[in-house]
Design goal:
591 residues; mainly alpha; Rossmann fold; 2 domains; five-stranded mixed beta sheet; 24 helices; 7 strands; globular
């Protein structure tokens, strides 16, 4: 007797019963584009203006893969190549760049949908994709031209092919469930498997050529396949997967060889290598990073809502009619998450959450699978998580975080636009004391903040020691542009991370920005303008300087042009000028 509809076990959809993905892509792109419409004209932000846009701009103008207008740090060149190619169509404007990033983000979400649909079913795929798109970190990165969104898109598509082929389901009706299975075109399982391995190798290679750290995922999967070989003693399927997964090392190595040939450095300049690798190897720092990265994967930006709902769901009995993720798939996802958790706790000087961008869809996939497996009304948990993510896009958590983790980055850009425009309008000849990234925003018109280059003097940040150091050389600048370098709860508000401030300052360059009024007192300047938006602030100081005019000896009387015999006035003496001595700025000494 056939099973009743209530107890019929659902199975993944086969290729012949589901809509082609290419029909869904325009919907995905329209949703991403329209939801980010008000952000498309914003000028470039933080690491965009610090490296990725200048590097792509150099390739666009000169065809060089090694940046010449910014310091090279050996990041692979694929984002620069793709951006430059798109600029030939859209023109070099921020709106064109951000539209292209929307195209990449939509493609990444389509990969998320494909993974969830093939492993679960279309409703679960819709929920997983929607939660991914609305997760504050993913939402913010969907228009920012960082290499991480490119690497995430290629990685997720490579995983889609790997999960379909490397861990085939044995349940009836699942795709490629039998070696003799043929698709609608008569292609056998072995041919499909070889095709998927080729696709995975190519896509993982493109991910590694987008961001070098993307190599972590295929390397971890190669180790996993090697373990399966030792366990199962089946050489052929696992050996071919190991070869496919290790293939991305070749193009990445070729890039580093080229970079070494052109610059003499393999992994970028020594300071970049020290900050991102060699200076991070203390046991205490790694332990702290493991703690922070675990929070990033499970708690940050309201991720705790779906995670806690999932932990609670594990206490409930399963629904017999609902299939769950196969154990083989769960093992693969666990390997990927574990490898990236550890790798990004060791590598990287800054604990930026965008490094984990392709991991968040996998966490959400597990959550949705468990909800669906244990609750008839699992969509209510999905709706609760969606509401939490929507709040996280605009409402900041009670601890310090990087502005690029939600729409706080938009507030920072708007404030910097106003400040730079005011300086360009009122004091275009000023010499501005500021920190990065405003240093680049003032000097590089191509970043979209000013149409003229404004002279700037850099300091590291706005910590008290840097402000005091700047006060020792007041003649080096006549204006100061101060701003909040991160978002932190205002004084008097709840801050749950205060106990970590000492270790964060020691290992992660955490500092407290000096407020405008205090900086004005230390630097002996006048606070002429300030503004703030939801905790982000910016201020302009002016410093009245007394210019020492040059003193030139007045012309000699006419009769002195023919001095008496024996008396001579040399030409050099007549032209001598008395000029003030100007001390060099410490930055000048360093250069």
């Amino acid at each position: 007797m056939p099973a009743s509809p209530r107890h019929r076990v659902s199975t993944p959809q086969t290729a012949s019963t589901i809509a082609p993905l290419w029909r869904l892509y325009p919907i995905f792109l329209a949703a991403v584009y329209l939801s980010h419409l008000t952000l498309l004209r914003l000028p470039y932000f933080w690491d965009e203006g610090g490296y990725y846009i200048p590097a792509a701009w150099d390739f666009f103008r000169t065809g060089t893969l090694i940046p010449i207008s910014t310091a090279t740090n050996a990041h692979p060149p694929l984002p620069s190549i793709l951006l430059a190619g798109w600029w030939h169509l859209s023109g070099f404007v921020p709106s064109g760049t951000r539209t292209f990033i929307c195209i990449i983000a939509a493609a990444a979400l389509l990969a998320v949908y494909r993974i969830a649909r093939n492993l679960l079913d279309p409703p679960a795929a819709v929920a997983t994709t929607l939660l991914t798109a609305l997760y504050p970190i993913w939402f913010a990165q969907s228009t920012l031209a960082h290499a991480d969104i490119f690497a995430a898109a290629f990685t997720l598509w490579a995983l889609a092919f790997y999960l379909e082929c490397a861990t085939p389901s044995t349940r009836p009706g699942a795709p490629w469930s039998s070696p003799s299975h043929r698709d609608d075109h008569g292609v056998t399982h072995s041919a499909i498997s070889a095709q998927r391995k080729l696709y995975s190798a190519i896509l993982f290679s493109l991910a590694a050529l987008s961001k070098e750290t993307a190599i972590v995922t295929p390397a971890a999967l190669a180790l996993w396949e090697a373990f399966l070989f030792l366990r199962d003693r089946k050489l052929r399927p696992h050996a071919t997967w190991v070869a496919a997964l290790l293939f991305p090392i070749l193009p990445l190595s070729a890039w580093y060889a080229f970079h070494y040939h052109r610059t003499g450095f393999i992994f970028g300049n020594p300071e970049f290598l020290r900050y991102n690798a060699t200076a991070n190897l203390s046991a205490h720092r790694i332990a702290l990073c493991l703690y922070h990265r675990l929070l990033h994967l499970t708690m940050h930006m309201n991720m705790f809502v779906p995670v806690i709902c999932t932990l609670a769901a594990l206490l409930m009995p399963a629904i017999a009619s609902r299939a769950r993720l196969p154990r083989t798939v769960l093992n693969v996802i666990a390997v990927i998450l574990l490898a990236n958790w550890i790798a990004f706790s060791v590598l990287g000087g800054a604990l930026l959450t965008r490094y984990l961008l392709p991991m968040y869809p996998l966490v959400l996939l597990i959550c949705v699978a468990e909800w669906r497996h244990r609750f008839h009304r699992w969509y209510l948990l999905a709706a609760l998580s969606t509401a939490a993510f929507l709040c996280g896009i605009w409402i900041n958590p009670p601890y310090a975080f990087a502005p690029e983790d939600n729409l706080t980055y938009r507030d920072m850009i708007v404030l910097h636009q106003r400040a730079v425009a005011l300086i360009a309008q009122k004091w275009p000849q000023a010499t501005v004391l500021t920190a990065w990234p405003a240093f680049s925003e003032l000097q590089r018109p191509e970043l979209g903040y000013t149409k003229i280059s404004i002279k700037a003097v850099p300091i590291q940040n706005f910590a008290i020691d840097q402000i005091q150091k700047a006060a020792t050389d007041p003649g080096a600048y006549d204006t100061a542009l101060l701003f909040s370098t991160k978002w932190a709860p205002p004084p008097g508000r709840t801050n749950i991370a205060t106990r970590n401030e000492s270790t964060d300052a020691r290992y992660f360059d955490f500092h407290e920005d000096v407020r405008p009024a205090e900086a004005s007192a230390i630097l002996h300047g006048e606070l002429v303008w300030q503004a703030s938006i939801r905790g982000e602030w910016v201020a302009i100081l002016r410093f009245p300087r007394i210019e020492n005019a040059s003193v030139t000896r007045p012309p000699l009387p006419t009769d002195t042009l023919n001095p008496p015999r024996g008396i001579s006035l040399g030409a050099e003496e007549n032209k001598k000028e008395i000029q003030p001595n100007r001390r060099r700025h410490p930055i000048d000494e360093g250069n």
